Amino acid sequence: MVFGDSLSASYGMPAEAGWVALLNQRLQSQSSVYQVINASISGETALGGRNRIDQELKLHRPDIVILELGANDGLRGANIKSIYQNLEAIIQACQQNNASVLLAGMQLPPNYGITYTQKFQDIFPQLAKENNAKLIPFLLAGFGENHEYFQADGIHPTAIAQEKIIENVWEILNTMFPITQVAKSPDT
After folding, report:
1. Count of alpha carbons within 13 angstroms of residue 177, beta-carbon side
2. Which of 26, 63, 104, 122 is the S-S candidate for 139 at Cβ 3.0 to 4.6 Å?
């Protein structure tokens, strides 16, 4: 289950062009056992996610949750401790429901000031370490500073950028379960 904001909700493009749909296609090509549920909402914050995670976990019962929240909080200048606590509560709820967590790290533009942007960026590796979660260091790695990969708003990646996002996700997700071993015959 992908639990995120507009970066995962295919903002500004057809849903089938977004990285979550591309991930589902890739997993399905490996084994029909896997299905990706997109529980992302454009504009979602860490607090909003914290308030709805239990419902999504009960509804979908995922084995893995890709947690992609926090960017909207950072862009709004939210309190760092509050962002951390809300994301940690989501991680713990997932783990209590036997779901492994893959946390997507985010970064802010430099105009938020070096102190705030560094504290924000540090949230993700700290959370992963403290809560035994896997980490994508930066979801937009490899293109985040390149304006041609963003829509006119300068915030949301284009359809072309979705391929780069999926590679960033796949690099870590692929280590969380033996994808190549799932396509066994029924008698093995």
Report:
1. 15
2. 104
Query: pLDDT for 154-187, tens place per residue?
Result: 999 999 999 999 999 999 999 987 654 444 333 3
Q: Contact at 8 Å (CB) between 123 and 130? A: no
E strand map for 61-140 = 64-68, 100-104, 134-136
Q: Determine contact, residues 165/140, Cβ cutoff 8 Å.
A: yes
Instruction: Determine the pLDDT at residue 185.
Output: 34
Judge residue 70's burial from the number of C-beta atoms within 10 Å of its C-beta, 0-12 exposed, 13-18 middle, 19 or more buried.
buried
**Helix %, strand %, coil % for the chain, to 5?**
50, 10, 40
Q: Kindly report whether the global pTM for this prediction surpasses the value 0.90.
A: yes
30 token code pair: 């490996």
Question: If residue 181 lies in a helix (H) or strand (E), which one and from where to where?
Answer: helix 179-182
Give dist(CA 17, CA 130) in Å, integer.
34
Given a cut of 90, whether residue 66 has pLDDT beyond it is yes
DSSP designation for 186: T
